[in-house]
Amino acid sequence: MSYRITKVEVACFPSNEAVGSAVGAFGISVDELRGLIEEFQCTASRRPGVGYQQHIADELERHLTRRLRARGDLQTATTRYSPVLGERADLAIAGREGGRRLYFEIEFRPNVEKDLVKFQIGWNRERLAAAVLVLAVDRQAVNPQYTSMPEFAKFARVIGELRPVYPLLLVGISGDHIEP
Q1: Number of structural domains the chain divides into
Q2: Domain range spanning residue 35?
Q3: How far apart are CA 30 and CA 130, in angstroms?
């Protein structure tokens, strides 16, 4: 049994133009990023005592790494937000010349606010070009037993109130388990 993405929602902060311009500097578009996530399928088996959301996060990170690096003009970069702090992103992508990065956080745990702080630190340190935060659209479609999982709509409202100055692409995913 595998997990297939059936729905992807996106929201851009502070605006569509800001996010489009920031990711465009890497030769990709918001629609292309969305497409990379839509094509993802998690093939990990369910294991007792292990929340399936961890499999989804790990495999989605590997999928995005592989697909973005396959473009040839992008490379993985250090995931550290600051040389002073030990905080790391799930994935960081840079152009061939290095410089600012796209930082990705795939978050199915209740500490999503911490990711927003890390993005701000990356922006302050002039390392972050744009942030990509992936959440569940509906926790029921990822792991119904995990009641504290952050959800897209709620955090879109929180981020709207926070009004980040850095470009932030919020991505919500939903899916279902299918037979191979």
Answers
A1: 1
A2: 2-178
A3: 11
